[in-house]
Design brief:
It contains eleven helices and eight strands. By secondary structure, the protein is an alpha/beta fold. It has an eight-stranded parallel beta sheet, with no helix packed on it. α4 (about 65-75) links the parallel β1 (about 55) and β2 (about 85). α5 (about 90-105) packs parallel to α6 and α6 (about 120-130) runs parallel beside α7. The protein is elongated. This is F-box domain-containing protein. InterPro entries: F-box_dom, Leu-rich_rpt, LRR-containing_regulator, LRR_dom_sf. Keywords: Repeat.
């Protein structure tokens, strides 16, 4: 009986490696295939040059800090991925710190979606610091985290300097009128934000008044979502004048 040839993955023909890659998603390729050895790196890079996949997605998985750290190191200088979606992946503040580091170096990422990840004020601060330098991110989705008013203040401060972010999703983050006040102040100076989603928070009448006042100085925001914020009819009237001045749509 002839001996069966046993091939190491590291020595497989390129064509066979490509077949393996065809069966894997982008997340697995980046986290499991890169940095195994120089040869595999070259093969994976060549493979990705001919792919149209530009989204890194992992939803509902338990991603520990070490995995996020490894992934972030790869993404810092990646030129293919433009969208990252890591919803409900237990990223927390530690993982957010690593992802924020990506934003300081990566020049192709336009969407970062990290909703449902127990990110608190510290994580928001990491992201805010990165946004002060980043010039490519267009959409930041932080829905249903725990950034609160403190985290909102960090992000609002970043909006004073950032010149590219167009959509900011902060629904379900325990933001009160204090956080709304900071965002309203940012809207006076920001000239790029088009959509601001603040649904399911605790903004109330006072917060609505702050936002309406901030919009007096803003001409770029066109969509403001405020549903489920204990905003009564009187508070809703604060926005009527602003909606006549610019093509602004407010959902209460």
């Amino acid at each position: 009986m002839k001996d069966k040839a046993i091939h190491s993955f590291l020595t497989l023909p390129v064509e066979l490696v490509y077949r393996i890659l065809d069966k894997l998603d982008t997340f697995t390729i980046l986290c499991s295939m890169l940095n195994v050895c120089t040869r595999i790196n070259v093969i994976v890079d060549a493979y990705r040059q001919h792919q149209t996949i530009n989204t890194l997605q992992s939803l509902g998985n338990q991603l520990d800090p070490q995995t996020i750290y490894y992934l972030a190191n790869i993404l810092r200088h990646d030129k293919k991925i433009t969208k990252i979606r890591l919803g409900n992946s237990t990223i927390s503040d530690i993982g957010t710190r690593y992802l924020a580091n990506v934003l300081q170096y990566n020049t192709t990422l336009i969407t970062l979606d990290i909703r449902y990840n127990k990110i608190g004020p510290a994580g928001a601060q990491y992201l805010a610091n990165a946004l002060s330098y980043n010039t490519t991110l267009i959409v930041l989705h932080l829905g249903y985290n725990e950034i609160g008013d403190e985290g909102t203040q960090y992000l609002a401060n970043a909006l004073h300097q950032n010149t590219t972010l167009a959509a900011l999703h902060l629904w379900g983050n325990k933001i009160s009128s204090a956080g709304a006040r900071d965002l309203a102040n940012a809207l006076k100076y920001n000239r790029t934000l088009i959509k601001l989603d603040l649904r399911y928070n605790q903004i109330g009448r006072a917060g609505a008044r702050y936002l309406a006042h901030g919009l007096q100085y803003n001409t770029t925001l066109t969509m403001l979502s405020l549903e489920q914020n204990s905003i009564d009819f009187q508070a809703g009237q604060y926005f009527e004048i602003e909606m006549k001045k610019v093509p602004l749509r407010v959902w209460l």
